[in-house]
Amino acid sequence: MGSNLDVVLDRDPHELEFHQAVGEVLDSIEPVLERNPHYRHAKIVERIVEPERVIMFRVPWVDDQGQTHVNRGFRIEMNSALGPYKGGLRFHPSVNLSILKFLAFEQTFKNALTTLPLGAGKGGSDFDPKGKTDVEVMRFCQSFMAELFRHIGHNTDVPAGDIGVGGREIGFLFGMYKKLKNEFTGVLTGKSLNWGGSLIRPEATGYGAVYFANEMLKTRDDSIEGKTCLVSGSGNVAQFATEKLLELGGKVVTLSDSGGYIFDEAGINEEKLKFVKILKNYKRGRISEYIEKYPEAVYTPADGRDAHNPLWDHNADCAFPCATENEINDIDAQNLINNGVYLVSEGANMPTTQAGVDIFLENKLLYGPGKAANAGGVAVSGLEMSQNSMRVKWTREEVDAQLKRIMTNIHSTCLAFSEEYHVPGNYVVGANIAGFVKVAEAMIDQGVV
Ligand code: NDP
């Protein structure tokens, strides 16, 4: 195992997030390699850590003042063993190759777990949509797509949204693709409902993370009902995780953005959540504005020098990190446990550091890693692709039932693999092995390509 990770470390020494994601998977799959020497012979690990293709390009655009800006665009086409490359686009100043490669690598296993015919990819730009006008965002998206369109297609590579890429951006990207290619296909998912989008796609990641949590709780004859929950983020995933938690009788007391977090001891009810949705999705405001409307809540600004995140230091039963990577470190993990949290379901990708994960596992928390718990988003993207190909539209109830079925199935698959490999209840090992075996078998079938 060490030697495979060493190759990755040596090849790309600065890609720390990518090393973290690869290291965790390689640790888990060691016993699978022992049992299956033909995987070693076929160099599956060496191949799976290397993207099939990395595309980097210049994205020049002009702001409302007539100033020219140059951002960097990326698409990582990671693995196509199971289907067309599939994974979101992220627009955030922190975007670089390491972050996108970690996300694309995670996506490989996540997409395999959905059981849908989806390969893996990820992309984006270091462009920051925050503070930009709609027209500036449109110009940027058009310039981004003016290069990306050559590399994607509904049978080749089907991007979706991620941080900073929501319905507005998908619309502008789709419009430009359609103009350049002169074809209307399901080349992107997360489209608007009236031009090819799927019902439940916006809700899918957040709802799915809660369905996964509920499945974990069922193993202890428990449910979300009456549970106090900490949620981070206030974007797409956080909003719909909160919505589903409320629907199932949970109480959500926190939300955050990169500026800080709010703690509302009385609970964020439906009315308050509606306020947050309008604030974030239409006014594009800051979560700090919540306390202007609901002064009984407390806002704590983020302090970059703090060694831990105070959001995770409140009494609760369950935690749903839904903002970004590495937002829970070992101190936060210990704080969660000290405050009574016994379930963590990750809406975000890799929100917990390796040291934090180790603490969760040692303490036998019900811990659903992102690649299993947040797979609902890409699963419904897969369902959007099916509906586009068939030119049909399924009802909300049909899609939600399929999402629930897929999340239940991912949960039982992870559990079964954790038992088969003698670490029952370890969803990290279960998810990594289940995803890896599926992709590895397909790669073996398809030869050395
Ligand atoms: P959004 O852009 O809708 O929301 C992101 C939220 O996280 C915002 O509240 C944002 O605050 C906050 N955030 C982003 N970066 C940071 C940071 N560096 N520090 C603190 N807060 C931060 O994105 P999504 O909700 O779509 O994505 C959230 C997470 O879920 C990501 O990890 C993403 O990869 C993952 N995910 C998303 C899926 C989807 O379907 N959308 C599918 C699977 C996983 P601010 O507004 O201040 O930037």
Describe it for me?
- It is a single chain.
- The protein has 449 residues and is α/β, with parallel strands linked by helices.
- The chain folds into 2 domains: 2-183, Leucine Dehydrogenase, chain A, domain 1 (Rossmann fold, 3-Layer(aba) Sandwich), CATH 3.40.50; 204-364, Rossmann fold (3-Layer(aba) Sandwich), CATH 3.40.50.
- The protein is built from 17 helices and 13 strands.
- The strands form 3 sheets. It has a 5-stranded mixed sheet, sandwiched between helices. The protein has a 5-stranded parallel sheet with strand order 7-6-11-12-13, with helices on both faces.
- Helix 5 packs across helix 17 (427-445) and helix 8 (201-218) crosses helix 15.
- The protein starts with a helix and ends with a helix.
- It binds NADPH dihydro-nicotinamide-adenine-dinucleotide phosphate (NDP).
Element order: H for helix, E for strand: HHHHEEEHEHEHHEHEEEHHEEHEHEHHHH
Name the average pLDDT: 97
**Largest sheet composition:** 5 strands, mixed
- Architecture of the largest domain, according to CATH? 3-Layer(aba) Sandwich
Poorly predicted runs: none
User: What share of the residues lie within helices?
Assistant: 40-55%
CATH class of the largest domain: Alpha Beta
Count helical runs.
17
Dominant shape: globular
> What's the number of extended β-strand segments?
13
Proportion of β residues?
5-15%
